Amino acid sequence: MKNIRVTVWNEFLHETMFQEIRDIYPKGIHGCIADFLKEAGFEDIKTATLEEPQHGLTDEVLNNTDVLIWWGHMAHDRVEDSVVDKVHRRVLDGMGLIVLHSGHASKIMRKLCGTDSQLLRWREAGEKEILWVVDPSHPIVEGLPDRIEIEHEEMYGETFIIPNPDELIFISWFEGGEVFRSGFTYKRGRGKVFYFRPGHESFPTFFNEYIQKVIINAVKWAKPLNMPKVQLGEIKEPIMPIANPTLNVIEGLHNKK
Questions:
Q1: Could you tell me which residues come within 8 angstroms of residue 69 by beta carbon, excluding any fewer than 6 positions away?
Q2: Cα-flanking dihedrals φ and ψ of residue 85, to 5°?
Q3: What is the mean pLDDT of each successive set of 10 residues along the chain, which is 257 residues long?
């Protein structure tokens, strides 16, 4: 996969602040994701974190990113609006975006949705989650079983305030009986967006082979398409007014007065 340039963005705060999180993800969540993408054959992988200058998402980085993976949770408000605007512009121009777990409440996800997508039910109790595949023909689920079982995860439950997805791929069931739209896509401008719910920092979810497979497939799906850009040219000749019989009649009556 030499032709897909991937940047993995992570707040990288939980892992630096809490030993129990660092024990699960010693390289950070971004490091874990970058590692399994490299093992899958992706060769151009970069990482970026919140506390780097411009959050690691400089113009040079974004302009050389085909697919951006975003994990955020506790510091959505610390992401600079100017950086969000740049990411938004790149998505509209064709960059793919994969938003993970609590990234549903990130500024970029809310900007792309146009709704307050942070509104949902949640409970952190380490419950069992079953991710049901509801679109078995979608390329993001290629090579997966009809469901993915995760023994311990944070619960997200409906109602989830988002626009109707273009494609619904996964629905989750939790032990408390809640359900959730856990995997869906949008098209925004020339870009493709995939939201995927699993991945709470307190659990080793990103080491699950099926979760990794979803993200690997999603990167391939979200890569930019080779689409011609619309060029606005100069008008070579003046535009002639179109004859309108009704206007002619009205103008004639007016002139008789």
A1: 6, 7, 8, 9, 33, 98, 100, 215, 219
A2: -60, -40
A3: 89 96 97 98 97 97 98 95 98 98 94 79 88 98 97 90 95 94 96 97 97 98 82 60 57 56
What domains can be seen in the chain, in order of their start residue?
A: 5-118+182-256 (3.40.50.880)
- Measured CA to CA in angstroms, residue 68 lies from 7, 52, 71, 219 at distances of 5, 16, 10, 9
Report strand pairing: 67-71 vs 96-100. parallel
φ, ψ of residue 246 to 5 degrees: the values are: -65, -45
CA nearest neighbour of 75 among 111, 103, 113, 47 = 103
Model's pTM, two decimal places?
0.87
Angstrom distances, CA of residue 49 to CA of 89, 198, 223? 20, 20, 22
Residue 126: the pLDDT is: 86
